[in-house]
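Worked problem 6 (solution included).
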Amino acid sequence: MKSPAIYILSNRPNGVLYIGVTSNLPNRIWQHRRGYLDGFSKQYRTHLLVYYEQFDDMHSAIAREKQLKHWKRTWKIELIERTNPDWLDLYSSLF
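Solution. The predicted structure is:
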């Protein structure tokens, strides 16, 4: 799965949310889980992949990431719960 993607990580259901963009989703989530990426995600231990979208090009993925970062928290939670109502960790579904 080496196509551009946006993703949302959380530390628990309805917990802290982190939104990111990457060209290699499995590798990026692996890096987050191992604590290799300093910053917000490492500080708040947002290691559960609760939502992601794939794109044909990085420009579209970045535009979507920026859009989601400006959304209200309630909208982000509704987006997650439409496809992942139990807030399951989707990391294993990438393989």
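Discussion: The radius of gyration is 12 Å.
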